[in-house]
């Protein structure tokens, strides 16, 4: 490929990309360590176009968070969403409340419920099964994408089921063996090293070689507000840089050569960084979302939802072709004849007492506590 490369250490990597060769650990470290962001982006764009052309996917989805009560409240120092059972702001929705919240967005073209929450010490598997059945009865045309690997492992312990080996990888491996595809993530921008990032990506790639069960990779930017780690590091009110956000998208695309899609999570990094990411190896703009709580409680200043018109405008503004997908990346519709102003999320958004953000008070970081450096594979919000 003809490419002006400012950082000569990237030249052999560019040759590998042009030959569609797999990158090594040293290659990945060189990419993360290089300041030549535009070259890295161009290489990732080449890799993405091989599989996805100019298509950019998105989902018409709504987020549901049944509870923020979590047994990891005092140990998961980078989370701003979790509460202890009697802590101010703690909530656990009844099933009727969950169904009412889902119904509140009925005017929107919702085709996916994205359901994640805290690790509640008393909510058993039956609560979630009844929730899924009730949502399907009320919204038969809406797919359900639910529970992180950490939530599945927690429920297995509550039900006295066995979870062996590395829990995060074990849960995904078992899901893939059952024919259930999943997504993989990496939380970045906290206390991890570049080596941690690379080893995390290589662990994901190795499992994908084994199972072919991951649909998409989602890098997740750490937000430091309203959590203990952010206060201990003195980073309250800051965020990851656009440079690092784009680099994590691009390196993820180049290293994870066996994962079909790479998603940018616009509620975390802003719609504008996400739009630029569409030329840095990314082919998924997340979706309409409709009331994202987890990252907004950590200080995200982005909108709570985007309309069809806004999503399509962002994708077309990057010179790409918008494609609405379902949870399994099957095409729902394309937009050659799209007329703005149709099937949009209502401007005022959903209404009701459950649609509110209540930030946690000061996390009261304990100065004598040694905060962990997170290495290897760690789960985050997906």
Topology:
Layout (H helix, E strand, L loop, with lengths): L10 H8 L6 H9 L3 H16 L2 E5 L1 E4 L30 H10 L7 E4 L9 H14 L4 E4 L2 H10 L8 H11 L4 E7 L5 H18 L2 E8 L6 H5 L9 H14 L5 E2 L3 H4 L1 H7 L6 E4 L20 H10 L3 E5 L5 E4 L48
Parallel strand pairs: 1-8, 1-9, 2-3, 3-4, 5-6, 6-7
Antiparallel strand pairs: 9-10
* CATH class call: Alpha Beta
Q: Beta-strand percentage?
A: 5-15%
* Major β-sheet strand ordering: 8-1-9-10
Helix content: 25-40%
**What count of helical segments does DSSP give?**
13
Which fold name corresponds to the CATH topology? TIM Barrel
Number of strands: 10
Distance between the termini: 35 Å
Radius of gyration: 20 Å
CATH superfamily: Aldolase class I
Order of helices and strands: HHHEEHEHEHHEHEHHEHHEHEE
Mean pLDDT across residues:
84
How many separate structural domains?
A: 1
Q: Tell me which CATH architecture applies here.
A: Alpha-Beta Barrel
Stretches where pLDDT falls below 50 for ≥5 residues?
364-382
């Amino acid at each position: 490929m003809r490419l002006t490369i400012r950082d000569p250490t990237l030249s052999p990597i560019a040759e590998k990309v042009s030959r569609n060769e797999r990158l090594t650990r040293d290659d990945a470290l060189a990419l993360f360590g290089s300041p030549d962001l535009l070259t890295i982006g161009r290489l990732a764009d080449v890799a993405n176009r091989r599989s996805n052309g100019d298509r950019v996917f998105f989902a018409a989805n709504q987020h549901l968070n049944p509870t923020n009560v979590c047994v990891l409240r005092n140990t998961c120092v980078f989370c701003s969403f979790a509460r202890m059972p009697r802590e101010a702001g703690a909530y656990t929705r009844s099933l009727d409340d969950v169904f009412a919240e889902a119904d509140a967005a009925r005017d929107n073209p919702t085709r996916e419920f994205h359901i994640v929450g805290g690790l509640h010490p008393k909510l058993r598997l039956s609560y979630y099964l009844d929730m899924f059945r009730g949502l399907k009865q009320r919204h038969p045309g809406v797919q359900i994408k639910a529970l992180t690997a950490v939530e599945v492992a927690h429920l297995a312990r509550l039900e006295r089921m066995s979870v062996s080996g590395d829990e995060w990888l074990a849960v995904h491996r078992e899901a893939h063996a059952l024919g259930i595809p999943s997504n993989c993530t990496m939380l970045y921008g906290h206390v991890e090293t570049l080596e941690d990032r690379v080893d995390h990506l290589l662990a994901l790639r190795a499992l994908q070689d084994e199972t072919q069960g991951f649909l998409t990779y989602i890098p997740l930017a750490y937000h430091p507000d309203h959590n203990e780690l952010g206060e201990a590091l003195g980073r309250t009110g800051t965020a990851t840089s656009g440079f690092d956000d784009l680099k994590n998208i691009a390196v993820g695309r180049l290293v994870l050569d066996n994962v079909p899609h790479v998603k940018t999570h616009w509620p975390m990094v802003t719609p504008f960084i996400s739009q630029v990411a569409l030329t840095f190896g990314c082919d998924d703009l997340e979706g309409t979302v409709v009331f994202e709580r987890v990252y907004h409680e950590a200080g995200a200043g982005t909108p709570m939802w985007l309309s069809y018109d806004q999503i399509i405008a962002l994708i077309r503004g990057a010179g790409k072709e918008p494609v609405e997908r379902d949870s399994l990346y099957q095409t729902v519709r394309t937009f050659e004849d799209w007329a703005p102003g149709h099937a949009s999320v209502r401007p005022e958004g959903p209404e009701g007492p459950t649609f509110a953000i209540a930030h946690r008070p000061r996390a009261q970081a304990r100065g004598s506590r040694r905060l962990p450096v997170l290495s290897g594979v760690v789960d985050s919000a997906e």
